[in-house]
């Protein structure tokens, strides 16, 4: 009896947003563990988890409790002009978690999306390295869909018709079938870009495990080889952990690969519910470079702590 109404709702959602939903799923708000109820009354297994967002599953007791506590709190959205104590506590906990293996992350700036966390990271490095204006990234990279990040994302269809906002030079990612050859190829390409555009690169963005590129993990030797070259050329190292945070043997993937001493700025999102940019004192900006209306919903901040 719900099928016709549900089909109409899915079609209306596509009409309202100007394109069909990526998947024809609209939930009722009821779920448990790996199961979720859809608006047609069916119950489905959730094998997607919001691309890493719902890692604890649906209606996890800790998240339900956090959401209830947040609902009893004063503000729905916390932001630039008022943050509550839990925002400060979350930022402190994330900074300390990031430094537990002797990284040097001094600051934590909360945001509402992974794309905004990445944008904030790029602002920091561009200001620090001005007038450098180029970015290094891996082939197959996915960084987000903003005007800037759509150019870092190695998917030309995602920026069709958009003006170029930033120049990006790509380096091949690690190939486990050809470990030494892929290290040599990436090293050669990186040195070539640095030689072709001397002092023009503001940062290299690292996905330590490629997500949209195909869920490919890198290799510590591979990363360190490239990072040592970047250090020689004074190019900051940015770790994009929007998808990888909380999904390896350590809280951060850079900790999993033992890269703590190399990290200048790291971005986190997805699983955390809130997104954030962690960065060293060296990258602490001058002036009001980072500011936004919202830093996250109170329920997201409570859930992140849980």
Walk me through this protein's architecture.
By secondary structure, this protein is α/β, with parallel strands linked by helices. 35% of the residues lie in helices and 19% in strands. It has 10 helices and 14 strands. Helix 6 (149-152) links the parallel strand 6 and strand 7. Helix 3 runs antiparallel to helix 10 and helix 7 runs parallel beside helix 8. The protein is globular, with a radius of gyration of 21 Å.
The level of helicity is 25-40%
Could you tell me the radius of gyration in angstroms? 21 Å
Following the backbone from N to C, one meets helices and strands in this order, namely: HEEEHHEHEHEHEHEEEHEHEEEH
Strand order of the largest sheet: 5-13-12-11-8-6-7
Total helical elements: 10
Which word captures the global form? globular
* Helix/sheet category: alpha/beta
What is the first-to-last residue Cα distance?
39 Å
Largest sheet, in brief, is: 7 strands, mixed
Average of pLDDT: 95
Contiguous low-pLDDT stretches (5 residues minimum) are none
Percentage of β-strand residues:
15-25%
**Tally of extended strands?**
14
């Amino acid at each position: 009896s719900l099928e016709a109404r549900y089909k109409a709702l899915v079609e209306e959602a596509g009409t309202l947003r100007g394109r069909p939903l990526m998947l024809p799923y609209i939930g009722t708000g009821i779920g448990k563990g790996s199961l979720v109820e859809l608006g047609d009354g069916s119950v489905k297994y959730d094998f997607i988890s919001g691309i890493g967002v719902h890692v604890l599953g649906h209606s996890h007791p800790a998240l339900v409790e956090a959401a209830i506590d947040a609902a009893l709190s004063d503000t729905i959205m916390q932001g630039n002009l008022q943050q509550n104590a839990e925002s400060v506590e979350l930022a402190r906990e994330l900074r300390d978690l990031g430094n537990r293996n002797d990284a040097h992350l001094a600051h934590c700036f909360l945001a509402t999306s992974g794309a905004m966390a990445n944008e904030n990271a790029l602002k920091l490095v561009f200001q620090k390295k001005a007038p450098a204006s180029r970015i290094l990234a891996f082939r197959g990279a996915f960084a987000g869909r903003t005007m800037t990040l759509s150019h870092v994302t190695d998917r030309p269809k995602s920026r069709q018709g958009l003006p170029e906002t930033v120049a990006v030079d790509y380096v091949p990612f690690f190939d486990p079938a050809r470990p030494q050859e892929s290290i040599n190829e990436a090293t050669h390409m990186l040195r070539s870009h640095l030689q072709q555009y001397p002092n023009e690169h503001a940062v290299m963005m690292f996905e330590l495990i490629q997500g949209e590129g195909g869920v490919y993990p890198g290799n510590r030797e591979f990363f360190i080889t490239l990072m040592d070259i970047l250090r020689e050329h004074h190019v900051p190292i940015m770790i994009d952990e929007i998808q990888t945070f909380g999904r390896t043997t350590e809280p951060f993937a850079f900790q999993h690969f033992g890269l703590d001493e190399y990290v200048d700025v790291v971005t986190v999102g997805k699983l955390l519910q809130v997104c954030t940019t962690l960065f060293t004192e060296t990258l602490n900006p001058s002036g009001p470079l980072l500011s936004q209306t919202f830093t996250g919903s109170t329920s997201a901040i409570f859930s992140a702590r849980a």
